């Protein structure tokens, strides 16, 4: 089967000046890969007419699909739309649908439309408008000799919405791709290198039409199996066969096998066990609560949190004993033990969670260095505590502690299955 | 003065599959920008001979400097070296200096050299070897008709060491570059289009050697002034002159003129006014607290937070009157008014902040649609409230509300200057 080829153009001086990392092209190529489209080239250019025109024509000469991001804003340095209009010999016309969408967005935000925003509703007459559900710049689709061009905003969340709701479905419906199946296996709490050792024999025995990729992030490693073929059913069987032999090797570290995130998994476990939860966050400063409340419907199992950043509040807002703090200090097993139990009682939750640590970069002592963190889980029957020894990077310590807390909740609730 | 132009080629299938974000090209272009070299294009291609040869020749046709990373490893899928040898019509010869370096590196690591690694010491006869101080793959420099090509490893720390110790010094010594200065101006709370209207006349009056760019993100817009010339002192004067005329136009929206973030600015304002702060977060679920505590040293002004996600806790943990909740509901001006004042008292802070809203995607009513949010600021003397009408995207609503809250704090504290 003929390979469907795509090229990505990311437009913006800020990319060429090195002021931002171009994460759009990475995300887009990963999404294209999932549906069997091969990205053959990524090009980043500045907001310059000749550069844009040249790059588009070069991409057209090589690829079936050209995806362009950036340069659609309302300001003078945004040149993508006029350049594409010139490239495709277009007249600019007012697109009523686009104008209505922009107007509606503005009314919802209680703002009034100005000429610049109104100008964003003017589009080349020979393009198809691609709705922007979260921003003012509409996207555009051009068709030429069986090749398709999409122009999208450079703002990542606007681009992603557009890709997910319009571009990817359109490409799937328009081009004939080989069947490609991806299977994610999400692990937490095991380092990539140790994971790789554990599954080495399994990895080496993979059939040639199934590829494995390690996608590591902070404290989590995603394994991605990619199977390519012609029959969906066969590929699904092939992948299942591999999963069956993989799980016995690393099952205890696996929390999901699809797009679900750790916080969603925890939501499901809490609902399943009819449990509610509350947090007492010190060193994590709210990140655990934020992560849990990212999930729509979290109010069904999340009661609330206390962030007693100042020690005084650990006593008078949370009810930790003054003696405990004085004897063991805020960053101690005894303190998180009390914090978890007190927040559970105060918030009327089944499960109470606590974090306390030295996030850094400074504030450590020889006995309690930066990166020392205590976390606790209390459910009325038992109280579990864990000591973490992390690094000196503040943001990383906050992140890692949050993941460890979520994993402690997952393990404990899964154990109750 | 003639602009010195560079193009970057990053080579590797893992980039095209979207399995890694290409951070090398961002770092390289930022370093080039610092010494006055303009990156005109970045290209990422796979480990394919024809792709590599085509991309190199295209880059040569446009740029004075071509920097290539990736594809120098010892395995069969690393094609950059043979491709460059073919491109420059080279014979492969053993480079004694490179062999000595590799051997020394292996001895230092207590490993023995194998044939693959020994092969890495073979280089094209017409290139200049660029030492790799932290890896086994030597870099290469080719010179052709006054244009220079550097080939470097894709491993970021190997590439960076090579750039800092050899490539950048060589380019500085070889090319005559103009001076380039960048000045960031960070604004919050004003949409890009309205900002552009306000400063239109100023923008149109900018001298030709100073360029303006709008860098929008969620609820914030960065303005970037880029000045090019021959004297750093003159350019600094020119930029200052423009800032002096810009501030009167949009001063109230500007919170920084460098790399500083909004939460850092707020930390500085709180320290300056010797004020402490506490948060009662409902719809933001902890993101405001997390953002504030991302800043090292936040404990000097941040007391803590209560996240009364469940209404019951708004009453018994925060002290909001039952009657208020029953009469006006949780998402109302009256409720956030009380929340802000109560959290201020309970946490013993000078300033209390509250958020309550319908983050969505569901849970709205005709009177209180998804995206309706109330925020409040209380400092004992005054209580300020704001109504926000946001969209239907949960993550975005949580983000936007957080930025609005931070900006309300900034504005109020700046007003006290």
Account of the 3D structure:
By secondary structure, the first copy, chain A, is an alpha/beta fold. Chain A has 3 domains: 4-174, Molybdenum Cofactor Biosythetic Enzyme, Chain A, CATH 3.40.980; 179-257, Alpha-Beta Plaits (2-Layer Sandwich), CATH 3.30.70.2860; 262-414, Alpha-Beta Complex (Maf protein), CATH 3.90.950. Helix content of chain A is 41%, strand content 25%. Chain A is built from 16 helices and 17 strands. Chain A has helices at 13-16, 24-34, 49-62, 80-87, 96-108, 115-119, 156-174, 192-198, 200-204, 232-250, 262-272, 287-293, 311-316, 322-328, 333-346, 394-415; strands spanning 4-11, 37-45, 65-69, 92-94, 122-124, 128-130, 139-144, 147-152, 179-188, 210-217, 220-229, 254-256, 277-281, 302-307, 351-357, 372-378, 383-389. Chain A has a 6-stranded mixed beta sheet, sandwiched between helices. In chain A, β10 (210-217) and β11 form a beta hairpin. In chain A, α3 (49-62) crosses α4 (80-87) and α11 runs parallel beside α16 (394-415). The longest helix of chain A is centred in the last third of the chain and has 22 residues, at 394-415. The mean pLDDT of chain A is 92. Chains A and B meet through α1, α2, β2, α3 and α6 of A and α2, β2, α3, α8 and β10 of B. β14 (302-307) of chain A pairs antiparallel with β14 of chain B.
């Amino acid at each position: 089967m003929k390979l469907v080829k795509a090229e990505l153009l990311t437009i913006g001086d800020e990319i060429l000046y090195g002021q931002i990392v171009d994460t759009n092209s990475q995300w887009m190529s990963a999404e294209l890969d999932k549906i069997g489209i091969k990205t053959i080239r990524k090009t980043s250019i500045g907001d310059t007419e000749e550069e844009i025109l040249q790059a588009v024509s070069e991409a057209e000469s090589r690829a079936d699909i050209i995806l362009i991001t950036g340069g659609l804003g309302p300001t003078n340095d945004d040149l993508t739309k006029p350049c594409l209009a010139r490239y495709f010999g277009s007249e600019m016309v007012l697109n009523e649908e686009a104008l209505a969408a922009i107007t509606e967005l503005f009314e919802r935000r209680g703002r009034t439309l100005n000429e610049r925003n109104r100008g964003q509703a003017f589009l080349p007459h020979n393009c198809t408008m691609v709705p922007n559900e979260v921003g003012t710049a509409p996207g555009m689709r051009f068709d030429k000799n069986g090749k398709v061009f999409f122009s999208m905003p450079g703002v990542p969340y606007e681009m992603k919405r557009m890709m997910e709701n319009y571009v990817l479905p359109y490409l799937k419906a328009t081009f004939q791709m080989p069947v490609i199946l991806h299977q994610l296996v999400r692990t937490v709490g095991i380092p990539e290198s140790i994971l790789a050792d554990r599954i080495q024999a399994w990895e080496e025995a993979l059939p040639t039409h199934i590829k494995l990729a390690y996608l590591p992030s902070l404290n989590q490693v995603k394994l991605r199996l990619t199977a390519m073929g012609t029959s969906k059913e066969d590929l699904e069987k092939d992948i299942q066969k591999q999963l069956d032999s993989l799980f016995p090797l690393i099952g205890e570290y696996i929390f999901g096998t699809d797009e679900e995130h750790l916080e969603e998994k925890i939501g499901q476990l809490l609902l399943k066990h009819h449990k509610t939860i509350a947090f007492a966050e010190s060193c994590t400063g709210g990140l655990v609560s934020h992560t849990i409340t990212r999930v729509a419907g979290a109010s069904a199992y999340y009661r609330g949190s206390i962030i007693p950043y100042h020690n005084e509040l650990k006593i008078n807002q949370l009810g930790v004993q003054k003696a405990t703090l004085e004897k063991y200090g805020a960053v101690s097993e005894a303190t998180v033990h009390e914090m978890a139990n007190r927040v559970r009682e105060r918030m009327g939750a089944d499960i109470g969670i606590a974090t306390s640590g030295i996030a850094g970069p400074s504030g450590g002592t020889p006995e309690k260095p930066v990166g020392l963190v205590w976390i606790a889980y209390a459910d009325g029957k038992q109280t579990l505590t864990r000591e973490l020894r992390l690094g000196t990077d503040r943001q990383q310590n906050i992140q890692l502690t949050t993941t460890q807390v979520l994993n402690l909740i997952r393990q404990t609730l899964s154990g109750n299955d």
